[in-house]
Each structure stands twice: as structure tokens, then as C-alpha cells.
Amino acid sequence: MTVLSGPSGVGKDSVIELIRARTHWVHLSVSVTTRRKRDYEIDGKHYHFVSRTEFERLVAEGALLEWAEFAGNLYGTPRIEVEKHLAMGTPVLLKIDIQGARQVRAAMPEAQLVFLAPPSVEELERRLTGRGTEDPEMIARRLQHAHEELEAQKEFDEVVVNDSIERAADELVSLLGSPAYR
To answer: Which of 2, 110, 156, 159 has the maximum number of C-beta atoms within 10 A of its C-beta?
Structure first.
């Protein structure tokens, strides 16, 4: 199992979309969240969008491998899907935050943790602002959180710099152990 983490706006979704388009041999875990769905997102593909009550039920039942709260929203990884694919020998890729990566490391020490880093803090700020999905207050919170996350990259097994989506996707696929996939 490989965990992909990094600050908001670093391009995790873009890298994963490219991997999803090019590979069929890896299971990309779909997280559960209580946050509002963005216009381009598809329920069940990008996230499983649920109410806070439903999310809390999943936590109480132990149905999540990891979970965390960020910016007032809850995010978590459904345990059953991950375990099913690992049991079948399918490589599993999780996109989760730093807190979740730490929980996975504690629960599954054999998991490979990969940090997706921006080429620079200035580029990260440009990407966050350019998305146009959040107000200035949320962007400021995400940038402050990003600085904390950048400090945590030393806890990860590998660091991939996202200076090019194609190169970052290639490097991540290589870390997953696949032969060339083009």
C-alpha cells in the first residue's frame, strides 16, 4: 500500500487523475468526506460525500482505516475496500493528509508513505489562489496548514516534487512497482 500526501493545492488530484487514466492495475482508494462537493467532482469517483452523522457512524463502527478533520470537514479512508484489494494482491494508493498518513503508519508500518511537494511555496500559493474554489480566508488557512505539512515531509519514505504532473505521475507509478504504463 502506498499513501500519497502533501499540502492542499500541490496537485494530488491532478497526479491521481493522470494515473487513473493511464493505469488499470492499481486501486485508487476513494475517501469519505463531509465537505461540500465541488462542481467538477463526481460522488464515488473523487470522494464519497456523506453527512457528518453518517461519517460519525463509520468512525464508531471502526469502518475507517484512518480519519481526520480539516477546515471543519471530516475525511477518512474506508477500511473494507483497502483490505479487499490488498488481499487480492492489488497495489492500493491512498490520497490522505498528514494526520491520516501518520495513522496508517501506526496501523500498517509496511505502508509506503510518499509526500508530494510543490516546486516552491510561491508556486503552491499561486495554485491555491488560481483554483478559484475557496475564499481568501480559506486560502490563508490552507497556506498556514501547508507550511506545517511541508515540515512533516521528513517523516515520509519518499518525496516527489510536482514540477510537472506527467513526471510526478511517472515517479509515483515507479514507486508503486509497475513496469512502464504508457
So the answer is: 156
Tallying the residues shown for the chain, one arrives at 182
Q: Where are the alpha helices (DSSP H) in 23-135?
A: 52-60, 79-87, 98-107, 121-131
The answer on whether 91 is annotated among ligand-binding residues is no
Is 8 labelled a binding residue?
Answer: yes
The pLDDT of 101-127, averaged and rounded, is 90
Can you give the pLDDT at residue 9?
Answer: 80
Lowest mean pLDDT among 72-81, 98-107, 144-153, 159-168: 144-153
- Give every CB contact of residue 10 below 8 A, 6+ residues apart in sequence: 116, 117, 118, 124, 127, 146, 162
The answer to whether the annotation marks 9 as part of a ligand binding site is: yes
Measured CA angle at 90 (ends 97, 106), to 5 deg: 40
> Rounded mean pLDDT of the chain?
89
Q: Flag whether 62 is marked binding.
A: no
- Paired residues of 94 in beta bridges: 3
* 78 is an annotated ligand-binding site residue: no
Three-state DSSP class for residue 9: coil
Q: Does domain 2-176 have CATH number 3.40.50.300?
A: yes
Cβ burial of 137 (10 Å; 0-12, 13-18, 19+) is: exposed
Whole-number Å distance between alpha carbons of 96 and 119: 20
Confirm whether residue 11 is marked as ligand binding: yes
